[in-house]
Design brief:
about 400 residues, alpha/beta, Rossmann fold, 7-stranded parallel β-sheet, 14 strands, globular, disordered C terminus, binds adenosine monophosphate
Length: about 400
Protein backbone atom coordinates (compact mmCIF):
# COMPACT_ATOMS: atom_id res chain seq x y z
CA UNK A 1 0.00 0.00 0.00
CA UNK A 2 1.08 3.56 -0.73
CA UNK A 3 0.31 6.75 1.17
CA UNK A 4 -1.55 7.89 -1.94
CA UNK A 5 -4.12 5.11 -1.34
CA UNK A 6 -5.04 6.61 2.02
CA UNK A 7 -6.66 9.73 0.52
CA UNK A 8 -4.78 12.16 2.70
CA UNK A 9 -5.09 15.84 1.84
CA UNK A 10 -2.21 17.17 -0.28
CA UNK A 11 -0.94 19.22 2.70
CA UNK A 12 -0.58 16.04 4.77
CA UNK A 13 0.72 13.91 1.91
CA UNK A 14 3.36 16.62 1.39
CA UNK A 15 4.35 16.53 5.06
CA UNK A 16 4.63 12.74 4.91
CA UNK A 17 6.91 13.04 1.88
CA UNK A 18 8.98 15.70 3.70
CA UNK A 19 9.41 13.29 6.58
CA UNK A 20 10.87 10.81 4.09
CA UNK A 21 8.19 8.16 4.56
CA UNK A 22 7.52 6.25 1.36
CA UNK A 23 4.97 3.67 2.46
CA UNK A 24 2.61 3.61 5.41
CA UNK A 25 3.59 1.21 8.18
CA UNK A 26 1.08 -1.64 8.83
CA UNK A 27 -0.57 0.22 11.72
CA UNK A 28 -0.92 3.33 9.57
CA UNK A 29 -2.33 1.40 6.62
CA UNK A 30 -4.97 -0.18 8.84
CA UNK A 31 -5.77 2.57 11.33
CA UNK A 32 -5.86 5.68 9.13
CA UNK A 33 -8.95 4.64 7.09
CA UNK A 34 -10.79 3.70 10.31
CA UNK A 35 -10.05 7.04 11.95
CA UNK A 36 -10.94 8.98 8.80
CA UNK A 37 -14.24 7.09 8.82
CA UNK A 38 -15.00 8.43 12.29
CA UNK A 39 -15.05 5.00 13.92
CA UNK A 40 -13.71 4.01 17.33
CA UNK A 41 -10.37 2.23 17.20
CA UNK A 42 -8.49 -0.12 19.49
CA UNK A 43 -4.91 -0.55 18.33
CA UNK A 44 -2.52 -3.00 19.85
CA UNK A 45 0.79 -1.49 18.76
CA UNK A 46 4.14 -0.83 20.36
CA UNK A 47 6.15 2.32 19.92
CA UNK A 48 8.34 2.09 16.85
CA UNK A 49 5.49 0.87 14.69
CA UNK A 50 4.59 4.36 13.47
CA UNK A 51 1.53 4.57 15.72
CA UNK A 52 1.86 8.30 16.38
CA UNK A 53 1.39 9.19 12.73
CA UNK A 54 -1.35 6.54 12.57
CA UNK A 55 -3.53 8.70 14.80
CA UNK A 56 -2.12 12.17 14.09
CA UNK A 57 -2.48 12.15 10.30
CA UNK A 58 -6.20 11.29 10.21
CA UNK A 59 -6.94 13.54 13.19
CA UNK A 60 -5.25 16.48 11.47
CA UNK A 61 -7.17 15.68 8.30
CA UNK A 62 -10.49 15.66 10.15
CA UNK A 63 -9.64 18.84 12.03
CA UNK A 64 -8.68 20.60 8.82
CA UNK A 65 -12.04 19.63 7.31
CA UNK A 66 -14.07 21.16 10.16
CA UNK A 67 -14.81 24.58 11.56
CA UNK A 68 -12.22 25.95 14.00
CA UNK A 69 -13.52 26.55 17.53
CA UNK A 70 -12.05 28.22 20.56
CA UNK A 71 -11.62 25.00 22.55
CA UNK A 72 -9.91 21.82 21.32
CA UNK A 73 -11.76 19.39 19.09
CA UNK A 74 -9.12 16.69 19.48
CA UNK A 75 -7.41 15.56 22.67
CA UNK A 76 -4.42 13.22 23.03
CA UNK A 77 -3.72 11.87 26.52
CA UNK A 78 -0.31 10.32 26.97
CA UNK A 79 1.51 9.16 30.11
CA UNK A 80 4.84 11.01 30.08
CA UNK A 81 6.06 14.53 29.45
CA UNK A 82 8.54 13.31 26.85
CA UNK A 83 5.83 11.58 24.88
CA UNK A 84 3.56 14.61 25.14
CA UNK A 85 6.29 16.85 23.74
CA UNK A 86 7.09 14.39 20.96
CA UNK A 87 3.48 14.04 19.88
CA UNK A 88 3.01 17.79 19.91
CA UNK A 89 6.15 18.26 17.82
CA UNK A 90 5.01 15.65 15.33
CA UNK A 91 1.59 17.30 15.09
CA UNK A 92 3.41 20.54 14.26
CA UNK A 93 5.54 18.77 11.67
CA UNK A 94 2.73 16.88 9.94
CA UNK A 95 0.34 19.83 10.18
CA UNK A 96 2.84 22.43 8.99
CA UNK A 97 0.87 23.22 5.85
CA UNK A 98 -2.50 23.34 7.61
CA UNK A 99 -3.76 26.26 9.62
CA UNK A 100 -4.27 24.31 12.83
CA UNK A 101 -3.43 25.28 16.36
CA UNK A 102 -2.08 22.76 18.84
CA UNK A 103 -0.82 22.98 22.40
CA UNK A 104 0.82 20.66 24.91
CA UNK A 105 0.43 20.59 28.69
CA UNK A 106 2.42 18.46 31.13
CA UNK A 107 3.49 18.62 34.75
CA UNK A 108 6.75 19.77 36.30
CA UNK A 109 6.69 23.22 34.70
CA UNK A 110 4.73 26.41 35.45
CA UNK A 111 0.96 26.48 34.95
CA UNK A 112 0.78 30.09 33.82
CA UNK A 113 2.27 29.85 30.29
CA UNK A 114 0.11 26.77 29.64
CA UNK A 115 -2.96 28.64 30.88
CA UNK A 116 -2.26 31.48 28.44
CA UNK A 117 -1.73 29.00 25.62
CA UNK A 118 -5.01 27.22 26.42
CA UNK A 119 -6.87 30.53 26.46
CA UNK A 120 -5.51 31.52 23.05
CA UNK A 121 -7.67 28.98 21.20
CA UNK A 122 -6.62 25.62 19.81
CA UNK A 123 -7.71 22.66 17.71
CA UNK A 124 -5.57 19.89 19.20
CA UNK A 125 -4.47 19.46 22.80
CA UNK A 126 -1.79 16.97 23.86
CA UNK A 127 -1.66 16.39 27.61
CA UNK A 128 -0.45 14.23 30.46
CA UNK A 129 -3.35 13.27 32.74
CA UNK A 130 -2.39 14.95 36.04
CA UNK A 131 -1.67 18.33 34.57
CA UNK A 132 -4.75 18.25 32.39
CA UNK A 133 -6.87 17.63 35.50
CA UNK A 134 -5.16 20.61 37.17
CA UNK A 135 -6.16 22.84 34.30
CA UNK A 136 -9.67 21.40 34.24
CA UNK A 137 -10.03 22.03 37.99
CA UNK A 138 -9.11 25.67 37.46
CA UNK A 139 -11.41 25.95 34.45
CA UNK A 140 -8.37 26.76 32.34
CA UNK A 141 -9.01 23.88 29.95
CA UNK A 142 -12.40 23.21 28.42
CA UNK A 143 -13.12 19.93 26.77
CA UNK A 144 -16.75 20.43 25.77
CA UNK A 145 -15.86 20.53 22.07
CA UNK A 146 -13.78 17.35 21.99
CA UNK A 147 -14.88 15.15 19.08
CA UNK A 148 -11.86 12.83 19.04
CA UNK A 149 -9.86 11.51 21.97
CA UNK A 150 -6.69 9.42 21.83
CA UNK A 151 -5.53 7.39 24.78
CA UNK A 152 -1.89 6.72 24.00
CA UNK A 153 0.09 3.97 25.78
CA UNK A 154 -2.95 2.99 27.80
CA UNK A 155 -1.15 0.07 29.47
CA UNK A 156 1.56 2.40 30.71
CA UNK A 157 -1.06 4.76 32.15
CA UNK A 158 -2.29 1.79 34.15
CA UNK A 159 1.25 0.92 35.34
CA UNK A 160 1.85 4.51 36.39
CA UNK A 161 -1.39 4.67 38.35
CA UNK A 162 -2.98 7.20 36.01
CA UNK A 163 -6.13 5.25 35.23
CA UNK A 164 -8.34 7.04 37.80
CA UNK A 165 -7.20 10.40 36.35
CA UNK A 166 -7.89 9.15 32.85
CA UNK A 167 -11.39 8.02 33.83
CA UNK A 168 -12.11 11.44 35.33
CA UNK A 169 -10.96 13.16 32.18
CA UNK A 170 -13.01 10.87 29.96
CA UNK A 171 -16.07 11.57 32.12
CA UNK A 172 -15.84 15.28 31.30
CA UNK A 173 -15.85 14.72 27.53
CA UNK A 174 -18.97 14.93 25.38
CA UNK A 175 -20.71 11.54 25.06
CA UNK A 176 -20.71 11.69 21.31
CA UNK A 177 -17.10 11.44 20.30
CA UNK A 178 -14.59 9.19 18.58
CA UNK A 179 -12.36 7.10 20.88
CA UNK A 180 -8.93 5.91 19.80
CA UNK A 181 -7.10 3.59 22.20
CA UNK A 182 -3.45 2.65 21.70
CA UNK A 183 -1.78 0.08 23.92
CA UNK A 184 1.18 -2.27 23.48
CA UNK A 185 -0.42 -4.85 25.74
CA UNK A 186 -4.03 -5.39 26.82
CA UNK A 187 -4.22 -5.97 30.57
CA UNK A 188 -7.72 -6.77 31.89
CA UNK A 189 -8.27 -3.32 33.37
CA UNK A 190 -7.54 -1.64 30.06
CA UNK A 191 -9.81 -4.04 28.27
CA UNK A 192 -12.62 -3.25 30.71
CA UNK A 193 -12.10 0.50 30.29
CA UNK A 194 -12.11 0.12 26.53
CA UNK A 195 -15.26 -1.98 26.55
CA UNK A 196 -17.06 0.59 28.65
CA UNK A 197 -15.84 3.57 26.66
CA UNK A 198 -15.92 2.62 23.01
CA UNK A 199 -18.77 2.08 20.61
CA UNK A 200 -18.46 -0.69 17.98
CA UNK A 201 -14.68 -0.30 17.83
CA UNK A 202 -12.45 -1.64 15.08
CA UNK A 203 -9.59 -3.73 16.48
CA UNK A 204 -6.20 -3.42 14.86
CA UNK A 205 -3.29 -5.51 16.02
CA UNK A 206 -0.07 -5.04 14.13
CA UNK A 207 2.26 -7.44 15.82
CA UNK A 208 1.55 -10.33 18.10
CA UNK A 209 1.05 -8.78 21.50
CA UNK A 210 4.36 -7.90 23.14
CA UNK A 211 6.52 -9.37 20.42
CA UNK A 212 9.80 -7.59 19.70
CA UNK A 213 10.35 -6.52 16.13
CA UNK A 214 12.36 -9.11 14.26
CA UNK A 215 15.11 -6.69 13.24
CA UNK A 216 16.39 -6.48 16.83
CA UNK A 217 19.26 -8.90 17.49
CA UNK A 218 18.92 -10.06 21.07
CA UNK A 219 21.67 -11.46 23.25
CA UNK A 220 22.14 -12.22 26.94
CA UNK A 221 25.54 -11.83 28.60
CA UNK A 222 25.57 -13.85 31.83
CA UNK A 223 27.52 -11.96 34.49
CA UNK A 224 27.77 -11.66 38.26
CA UNK A 225 25.83 -8.65 39.59
CA UNK A 226 29.02 -7.21 41.03
CA UNK A 227 30.72 -7.29 37.62
CA UNK A 228 27.98 -5.59 35.66
CA UNK A 229 29.50 -2.11 35.73
CA UNK A 230 32.84 -3.35 34.44
CA UNK A 231 31.16 -5.40 31.74
CA UNK A 232 29.09 -2.42 30.64
CA UNK A 233 32.17 -0.18 30.51
CA UNK A 234 33.91 -2.83 28.44
CA UNK A 235 30.96 -3.21 26.03
CA UNK A 236 30.77 0.55 25.57
CA UNK A 237 34.37 0.56 24.37
CA UNK A 238 33.41 -1.59 21.37
CA UNK A 239 33.80 0.21 18.08
CA UNK A 240 30.27 -0.53 16.89
CA UNK A 241 28.58 1.06 19.91
CA UNK A 242 26.82 4.06 18.49
CA UNK A 243 23.98 5.83 20.24
CA UNK A 244 23.32 3.56 23.19
CA UNK A 245 20.39 3.51 25.56
CA UNK A 246 21.08 1.78 28.89
CA UNK A 247 18.26 0.72 31.19
CA UNK A 248 18.54 0.40 34.94
CA UNK A 249 15.87 -0.75 37.32
CA UNK A 250 16.18 2.18 39.71
CA UNK A 251 17.08 5.87 39.71
CA UNK A 252 19.86 5.18 42.23
CA UNK A 253 21.49 2.70 39.89
CA UNK A 254 21.16 5.10 36.96
CA UNK A 255 23.01 7.77 38.95
CA UNK A 256 25.72 5.32 40.01
CA UNK A 257 26.27 4.35 36.39
CA UNK A 258 26.62 7.93 35.23
CA UNK A 259 29.40 8.43 37.77
CA UNK A 260 31.15 5.22 36.74
CA UNK A 261 30.89 5.79 33.00
CA UNK A 262 31.84 9.44 32.98
CA UNK A 263 35.38 8.28 33.59
CA UNK A 264 35.22 5.91 30.63
CA UNK A 265 35.31 8.51 27.88
CA UNK A 266 31.66 8.10 26.87
CA UNK A 267 29.44 11.16 26.88
CA UNK A 268 26.82 10.11 29.38
CA UNK A 269 23.56 11.48 30.77
CA UNK A 270 20.66 10.03 32.73
CA UNK A 271 16.92 10.57 32.62
CA UNK A 272 14.60 9.54 35.40
CA UNK A 273 11.79 11.04 37.40
CA UNK A 274 14.05 12.69 40.00
CA UNK A 275 15.64 14.84 37.33
CA UNK A 276 14.18 18.26 36.65
CA UNK A 277 12.24 18.73 33.47
CA UNK A 278 14.99 20.94 32.05
CA UNK A 279 17.68 18.35 32.84
CA UNK A 280 15.61 15.67 31.12
CA UNK A 281 14.99 17.84 28.08
CA UNK A 282 18.70 18.72 27.90
CA UNK A 283 19.75 15.07 28.16
CA UNK A 284 17.27 14.01 25.53
CA UNK A 285 18.14 16.69 23.03
CA UNK A 286 21.84 15.95 23.60
CA UNK A 287 21.15 12.32 22.84
CA UNK A 288 19.16 13.21 19.73
CA UNK A 289 21.91 15.43 18.34
CA UNK A 290 24.71 13.02 19.29
CA UNK A 291 26.34 15.31 21.86
CA UNK A 292 25.56 12.51 24.29
CA UNK A 293 26.19 8.96 23.12
CA UNK A 294 25.05 7.02 26.18
CA UNK A 295 21.70 7.71 27.76
CA UNK A 296 20.90 5.93 31.00
CA UNK A 297 17.23 5.63 31.74
CA UNK A 298 14.64 4.00 33.92
CA UNK A 299 11.64 2.37 32.27
CA UNK A 300 9.11 5.06 32.96
CA UNK A 301 11.33 7.93 31.89
CA UNK A 302 12.25 6.21 28.66
CA UNK A 303 8.86 4.89 27.72
CA UNK A 304 8.11 5.64 24.10
CA UNK A 305 11.17 7.80 23.54
CA UNK A 306 11.32 8.45 19.88
CA UNK A 307 14.98 8.87 19.01
CA UNK A 308 16.15 7.76 15.62
CA UNK A 309 19.39 5.90 15.16
CA UNK A 310 19.77 4.12 18.50
CA UNK A 311 22.20 1.31 17.63
CA UNK A 312 22.14 -0.51 20.96
CA UNK A 313 19.81 -0.98 23.87
CA UNK A 314 21.54 -2.42 26.92
CA UNK A 315 19.54 -3.87 29.77
CA UNK A 316 21.92 -3.24 32.63
CA UNK A 317 19.22 -4.71 34.85
CA UNK A 318 16.48 -6.98 33.63
CA UNK A 319 13.04 -5.45 34.12
CA UNK A 320 10.66 -6.93 36.67
CA UNK A 321 7.74 -6.57 34.29
CA UNK A 322 8.54 -8.71 31.23
CA UNK A 323 6.57 -6.41 28.89
CA UNK A 324 9.06 -3.66 29.74
CA UNK A 325 11.74 -5.74 28.03
CA UNK A 326 9.82 -5.51 24.77
CA UNK A 327 9.24 -1.78 25.23
CA UNK A 328 12.91 -1.23 25.99
CA UNK A 329 14.33 -3.06 23.03
CA UNK A 330 11.75 -1.46 20.75
CA UNK A 331 13.78 1.75 21.07
CA UNK A 332 16.32 0.34 18.61
CA UNK A 333 15.74 -1.05 15.11
CA UNK A 334 13.19 1.66 14.40
CA UNK A 335 11.36 1.81 11.10
CA UNK A 336 12.95 -1.27 9.58
CA UNK A 337 16.57 -0.66 10.57
CA UNK A 338 18.64 -3.21 12.49
CA UNK A 339 19.55 -2.84 16.13
CA UNK A 340 21.06 -4.76 19.01
CA UNK A 341 19.57 -5.50 22.40
CA UNK A 342 22.05 -6.70 25.00
CA UNK A 343 20.93 -7.93 28.40
CA UNK A 344 23.29 -8.31 31.34
CA UNK A 345 21.79 -11.10 33.38
CA UNK A 346 22.99 -11.94 36.86
CA UNK A 347 22.18 -15.28 38.52
CA UNK A 348 19.64 -13.60 40.79
CA UNK A 349 17.73 -12.36 37.75
CA UNK A 350 16.98 -15.79 36.34
CA UNK A 351 13.29 -15.54 37.24
CA UNK A 352 12.95 -12.29 35.27
CA UNK A 353 14.86 -13.76 32.34
CA UNK A 354 12.62 -16.82 32.26
CA UNK A 355 9.51 -14.57 32.30
CA UNK A 356 10.90 -12.52 29.42
CA UNK A 357 11.64 -15.61 27.39
CA UNK A 358 8.15 -16.93 28.02
CA UNK A 359 6.71 -13.64 26.82
CA UNK A 360 8.80 -13.36 23.66
CA UNK A 361 8.32 -17.05 23.02
CA UNK A 362 11.95 -18.04 22.55
CA UNK A 363 15.23 -18.61 24.31
CA UNK A 364 17.47 -15.61 23.89
CA UNK A 365 21.01 -16.43 22.77
CA UNK A 366 23.60 -16.56 25.59
CA UNK A 367 27.02 -15.20 24.83
CA UNK A 368 29.89 -15.18 27.27
CA UNK A 369 32.17 -12.18 27.30
CA UNK A 370 35.72 -13.30 28.10
CA UNK A 371 36.71 -12.26 31.58
CA UNK A 372 33.13 -11.93 32.75
CA UNK A 373 31.74 -15.36 32.32
CA UNK A 374 31.73 -17.18 35.61
CA UNK A 375 30.60 -20.70 34.94
CA UNK A 376 28.17 -20.69 37.84
CA UNK A 377 26.54 -17.51 36.52
CA UNK A 378 25.92 -19.02 33.15
CA UNK A 379 24.18 -22.05 34.42
CA UNK A 380 22.23 -20.11 36.96
CA UNK A 381 21.12 -17.63 34.35
CA UNK A 382 20.00 -20.32 31.98
CA UNK A 383 17.88 -22.70 34.02
CA UNK A 384 17.73 -25.20 31.16
CA UNK A 385 21.47 -25.75 31.54
CA UNK A 386 21.63 -25.84 35.31
CA UNK A 387 24.03 -28.55 36.53
CA UNK A 388 23.11 -31.30 38.96
CA UNK A 389 24.52 -29.54 42.02
CA UNK A 390 23.71 -25.83 41.81
CA UNK A 391 26.84 -23.80 42.53
CA UNK A 392 24.93 -20.54 43.05
CA UNK A 393 25.63 -20.41 46.76
CA UNK A 394 29.17 -19.26 46.10
CA UNK A 395 27.79 -16.07 44.61
CA UNK A 396 25.19 -15.28 47.19
CA UNK A 397 27.26 -13.01 49.49
CA UNK A 398 28.23 -10.87 46.50
CA UNK A 399 24.75 -10.60 45.16
CA UNK A 400 23.31 -9.64 48.51
CA UNK A 401 25.83 -6.85 48.80
CA UNK A 402 24.96 -5.73 45.31
CA UNK A 403 21.26 -5.74 46.14
CA UNK A 404 21.73 -3.64 49.25
CA UNK A 405 23.75 -1.09 47.35
CA UNK A 406 21.25 -0.99 44.59
CA UNK A 407 18.28 -0.24 46.79
CA UNK A 408 16.25 2.67 45.55
CA UNK A 409 12.76 3.20 44.20
CA UNK A 410 11.60 2.26 40.78
CA UNK A 411 11.03 5.41 38.86
P1 LIG B 1 6.13 5.71 16.65
O1 LIG B 1 5.75 4.28 16.66
O2 LIG B 1 4.99 6.61 16.41
O3 LIG B 1 6.91 6.07 17.89
O4 LIG B 1 7.10 5.96 15.38
C1 LIG B 1 8.35 5.35 15.25
C2 LIG B 1 9.26 6.00 14.23
O5 LIG B 1 8.86 5.64 12.91
C3 LIG B 1 9.29 7.51 14.25
O6 LIG B 1 10.65 7.90 14.26
C4 LIG B 1 8.62 7.95 12.99
O7 LIG B 1 9.20 9.14 12.49
C5 LIG B 1 8.88 6.78 12.07
N1 LIG B 1 7.82 6.58 11.07
C6 LIG B 1 6.51 6.77 11.25
N2 LIG B 1 5.82 6.46 10.12
C7 LIG B 1 6.74 6.03 9.22
C8 LIG B 1 6.66 5.55 7.86
N3 LIG B 1 5.49 5.44 7.23
N4 LIG B 1 7.80 5.21 7.25
C9 LIG B 1 8.98 5.31 7.89
N5 LIG B 1 9.14 5.76 9.17
C10 LIG B 1 8.03 6.10 9.83
Amino acid sequence: MKFADLNLRPELAGAVADAGYTNPTPIQARAIPVVLDGRDLIACAQTGTGKTAAFLLPILQRLAGGTPLRHPRALVITPTRELAVQIHEMAGRYGRRLRLRSAVVFGGVGLEPQKRRLAAGLDLLVATPGRLLDHLGRSQARLGNVEMVVLDEADRMLDMGFLPDVRRILATLPEKRQNLFFSATMPDEIERLIRRTTHAPVMVEVTRRATPVSTVRQVVHPVAMIQKKDLLASLLRRADMGQTLVFTRTKARANQLVRRLEKSGRRVAAIHSNKSQSARTRALSGFRTGRIDTLIATDIAARGLDVDGISHVINFDLPHVPEDYVHRIGRTARAGRRGDAISLAAPEERVQLAAIERLVGKTIRREHVPGFTARADTEETNPRRRPQSPPARRFRPQSQRARTRASGGRS
